[in-house]
Design a protein that fits this description.
The chain is an alpha+beta fold. It has a single domain, classed as Glutaredoxin. Helices cover about 45% and strands about 20% of the residues. A 4-stranded mixed sheet has the order 2-1-3-4. The longest helix is centred in the middle third of the chain and has 17 residues. About 5% of the residues have low confidence.
C-alpha cells in the first residue's frame, strides 16, 4: 500500500506533459522579469523544458496576445499583461499540462 501512495505522490509533483513554454515580450524589464520567473519555476519543478523568449511581433500576434508580457504553455496563452511570480507560474504549468 505504501508503494501505491508514493507513486500517487510523485504523480502530483510532476505535470503530465509540458513540451513548450514561451514568454512573449518586447524586451522591456517586465518581459524579462516574467522570463526569469518562468525559468526559476521550471528549475524549481525539476523540468527539463527550455523556456523560449519570443520578441518577434508577427509570432506574438499569432497567439492572439493583446498585452505583454505573456506566458504561453503548450501553445496556449496562459497569462498576459502581468509579471507572474514563480509560484504563480508553477500553478499555471500544472493547470496547462
Amino acid at each position: 500500500m505504501a508503494l501505491l501512495e508514493k507513486k500517487k505522490e510523485e504523480e502530483k509533483k510532476a505535470p503530465a506533459c509540458l513540451c513548450c513554454i514561451k514568454v512573449l515580450g518586447s524586451g522591456c524589464a517586465s518581459c524579462h522579469a516574467l522570463y526569469d520567473n518562468t525559468k526559476e519555476a521550471v528549475k524549481k519543478m525539476g523540468l527539463s523544458v527550455e523556456v523560449e523568449y519570443v520578441t518577434d511581433l508577427q509570432k506574438i500576434m499569432e497567439y492572439g496576445v493583446i498585452s505583454m508580457p505573456a506566458l504561453v504553455i503548450n501553445e496556449k496563452a496562459a497569462a498576459m499583461g502581468k509579471v507572474l511570480k514563480p509560484a504563480d507560474v508553477e500553478k499555471l504549468l500544472y493547470k496547462y499540462s
